[in-house]
Specification:
Length: 393
């Protein structure tokens, strides 16, 4: 059984309370604030038919009776308030106990996983270790792929891809969501012609889920098969969410039919469903986001299961800088590969927009790496003045 022993990696989810530490720190209170940054011009996300006029985030702070504060972020957490008393006066290091309660809350209502993120940040501060080291990682250096989010015409998309290659990224993710998938293929052909073999290309088909107001059906297996066949000559590294998130059999068949890598799992809600994606051999790449699904605690176990099955583990992390840092710690702490998602599509989506909650944005270097700070927890430094300015509650 793994526990938060001093300087020891946490490789598996602990299953019982760490009672010997209960006298050191207790959870005194949990505070949740909401913030909204106006976006002018709005961000035209490929997967959303409504351009986004604001960037909304929620910040969770878990404070111990010794004054240590853990920080997390993610969804609006609507409906979690009645359950916060279940954590107050508890040992913050008892991540197994907290995980089970958060899983129950997830079943009954909201996605509560930003609270798990905050608990791990607090654990790192109590143990005076970065989270990636608590998880067993050997280095805080994270290789990233550039993840775009805007639909552009072929020439503009090609220019953007060249820009990202010259910025040092080893791979680029492009979006499919035009009215006619043939237009998606033509745009992708322009990109491949422009960059040659200087970077890998990843394609996000965005068929796994829809925004609440989007009633378009996902592709059928045969539609996905036709698109995938067109992608083969373009040497695509992976095809992401080509089918509905629950079509395990279809994804497995698509992999077997063409030998193309399939990636999925970013919005899969529960740990058992992620295990099913692995056990059905539906994916080559598993992409759960710790701010949306299972937190650090649950996904550490999922990552280990993926590794045993030969499935790459690389969290989705199209959110703000706090979530990016949390998923980056998870990625290197659990041996993720081959690269971590780095949302990057200027001028529409910049590090400054994405990371407005932080004192400094998370920046990739000229080789496509981000380097995690060797600070306790996630190394989060909030810009409290900016958060106060854009507070929404």
């Amino acid at each position: 059984m793994a526990t938060f022993e001093e300087n020891a990696p946490v490789l598996e989810r602990p299953r019982s309370a760490v009672t010997e530490r209960s006298a050191e720190h207790r959870i005194e209170r949990i505070d949740i604030t909401h913030h909204t940054l106006p976006l002018d011009p709005p961000f035209p996300a490929a997967w959303d038919s409504r351009p986004r006029a604001v960037c909304a985030i929620s910040v969770v702070r878990v404070t111990s009776d010794q004054g240590a504060v853990g920080i997390g972020t993610g969804t609006a957490l609507d409906g979690i308030e009645p359950y916060l008393d279940l954590f107050v006066d508890q040992d913050p290091l008892d991540v197994a106990r907290h995980y089970e309660i958060l899983s129950n809350i997830d079943f009954h209502g909201c996605r509560p996983w930003p609270l798990d993120i905050a608990l791990w940040d607090l654990a790192g501060k109590i143990r005076e270790q970065p989270v990636w080291r608590l998880l067993g990682g050997m280095s805080g250096r994270v290789h990233c792929y550039a993840s775009t989010g805007v639909l552009r015409d072929g020439s503009a998309l090609a220019e953007k891809a060249v820009e990202l290659v010259e910025a040092g990224f080893p791979a680029i993710k492009l979006r499919f969501h035009r009215e006619d998938w043939r237009d998606d293929i033509h745009a992708l052909e322009s990109v491949r012609d422009a960059i040659g073999d200087r970077a890998e290309l990843l394609v996000d088909c965005n068929q796994g889920w829809r925004m609440p107001w989007d009633t378009a059906p996902p592709w059928t297996y045969h539609q996905a098969l036709v698109v995938a066949r067109e992608l083969l000559p373009l040497d695509i590294y992976w095809i992401e969410e080509p089918l509905h998130r629950g079509d395990y059999k279809g994804m497995a068949a698509l992999r077997n039919a063409l030998g193309i890598r399939v990636a999925a799992g970013e919005m899969t809600r529960e740990e058992h469903a992620l295990r099913d994606l692995i056990d059905w051999q539906s994916v080559d790449v598993l992409q759960p986001d710790a701010t949306l699904t299972c937190g650090i605690t649950g996904l550490a176990s999922v990552a280990a299961r993926a590794a045993q099955a030969g499935v790459a583990f690389t969290p989705h992390t199209w959110g703000n800088g706090i979530g990016l840092l949390a998923n980056a710690h998870l990625f290197v702490g659990c041996g993720g590969s081959p690269w971590l998602e780095y949302p990057c599509d200027p001028p529409d989506w910049t590090a400054e927009r994405r990371d407005y909650a932080l004192a400094e944005p998370v920046q990739a270097d000229g080789d496509g790496y981000i380097t995690l700070p060797d600070m306790p927890g996630f190394g989060i430094e909030l810009d409290e003045d900016r958060l106060k300015k854009y507070r929404a509650d």
